[in-house]
Specification:
Layout (H helix, E strand, L loop, with lengths): L21 H19 L17 H22 L15 H14 L4 E3 L4 H13 L3 E4 L13 H12 L9 H12 L2 E4 L2 H9 L6 E2 L19 E7 L7 H14 L5 E7 L6 H7 L4 E3 L5 H9 L3 E4 L9 H8 L3 E4 L12 E3 L5 H13 L1 H14 L5 H20 L1
Parallel strand pairs: 1-2, 2-3, 3-4, 5-6, 5-8, 6-7, 8-9, 9-10
């Protein structure tokens, strides 16, 4: 194999759950779903009840509703429902999707299939690749997704089984069980980080290869802005696992310890986020919530900042916010000591992950611009790690090995 044949899914297929930049495509996907619903016409209303007629007994109504519920769920999946809050499309692995993928992969003359998800689309692609004798690589992004609360696990397991089929119970987490099942079925397993690769190996995944994420990076890095005030860009979803509220509390503490106007923080929320209303109330003067940004907007924010900030702890395996900051030539303040890729020279690790620990480092950096400049220099020296051409160079031998495994 001399190169990678890149094939997108058919144009009318929603993006797979778990794809890294799916949130940036959600408006387009949701608009498409609205058009489909509009094309079906108005919902059929209930027949008006005649005056004097008796209301059906509660037990009979309950039985009828119970009988309709499975059909409703099936129609919801067929029509392209979305996951609550996350608003990610729920796509079911079925014969129709597999047939479309089969025709598409043949027409595009695809040499290998590379999965970045574990759910409906990914399952259909995995089965289709097997039917065509193609090697399958799987990059794991979901090993540290938050566990579903105990009472909801049967519901989550049932929903995932409807989307992607049942899987063996290896752990207490239905999400992690699906991750491990696809990883076990793939010819090549890729982990963007070394610490996730070690955890996957402990869970029985065979020889996961460490392959950091990549980003085109756009233009070369621009010089740092003037050092009159420290400007920090926090880029991510406003959800509990990203710990934005801890960061905002740290900013308030740091600002109280510094001379006025010595610390300015720009906060960008890439996605709606369930904690956005709380973040708006907690944000103080000098903190700007910019809302969802496209890649160009993220780059402009980083260009106007001295460094990026990542405050998750035990959730991210190798976050794209690190990749984007390093490719922009900016250091990264972070709180998770397990994160290593790209941060050896560009990382600025807090002494503790709590708001006081984050505030301590913010104050130190605001008063010592030399550390900020050193982290930016380290980012420029490290940026090649995340270059697309370097990513492809490392990936091609893995896919060649996958082809040999698939042919065996």
């Amino acid at each position: 194999m001399t190169g990678i044949s890149r094939a997108a899914l058919p144009r009318d297929t929603p993006a797979p759950v778990g794809f890294r930049h799916a949130h940036r495509d959600r408006p387009r996907l949701l608009a498409r779903l609205d058009r489909r619903r509009a094309a079906r016409g108005p919902e059929r209303g209930r027949r008006p009840r005649r005056r004097g007629s008796r209301r059906p007994a509660r037990r009979t109504a309950t039985r009828r509703a119970a009988g309709r519920a499975p059909a409703r769920r099936r129609r919801a999946l067929d029509d392209g429902a979305t996951a609550p809050r996350a608003r990610l499309p729920l796509v079911r692995d079925d014969e129709g999707l597999r047939g479309r993928l089969l025709r598409h992969l043949r027409a595009a003359r695809v040499d290998a299939v590379h999965l970045h998800s574990e759910f409906g689309h990914a399952r259909a692609a995995l089965h289709t690749a097997r039917a065509l004798g193609l090697p399958v690589a799987h990059t794991v992004h979901t090993a540290y997704w938050p566990a579903v609360p105990g009472p909801l696990r049967p519901i989550a397991r049932d929903l995932l089984a409807r989307l992607a089929g049942p899987v063996p119970r290896r752990t207490g987490s239905p999400l992690l069980d699906h991750t491990l099942d696809v990883a076990s079925a793939a010819d090549v397993v890729v982990s963007p980080s070394a610490h996730q690769a070690a955890d996957l190996a402990r869970l029985g995944v065979r020889e996961p290869a460490v392959q950091p994420n990549c980003d085109s990076g756009g233009a070369p890095p621009v010089p740092l802005p003037p050092a009159d005030r420290l400007r920090v860009a926090w880029v991510g979803r406003c959800v509990p696992e990203k710990r934005l509220l801890a960061f905002l509390r740290a900013v308030r503490i740091a600002r109280s310890r510094l001379p006025e106007d010595r610390l300015a923080v720009a906060v960008a929320i890439a996605g709606d986020g369930v904690l956005l209303p709380v973040a708006r109330r907690l944000a103080g003067p000098g903190t700007v919530l910019l809302g969802r940004l496209d890649p160009a907007g993220v780059r402009r924010l980083l260009d106007a900042s001295h460094l990026g900030a990542l405050t998750s702890l035990g959730f991210d395996n190798q976050p794209m916010s690190v990749v984007e900051a390093v490719r922009a030539g900016r250091g990264v303040l972070h709180t998770d000591p397990r994160l290593q890729e790209g941060l050896e020279a560009a990382g600025l690790l807090t002494a503790s992950p709590d708001p006081d620990g984050i505030a301590d480092l913010l104050v130190e950096l605001a008063l010592d611009p030399a550390r900020v400049r050193a982290a930016a220099d380290g980012a420029r020296a490290t940026a090649g790690l995340f270059a697309p051409e370097a990513h492809v160079e490392r990936l091609l031998p893995l896919l060649a090995g996958g082809r040999a495994a698939a042919a065996a």
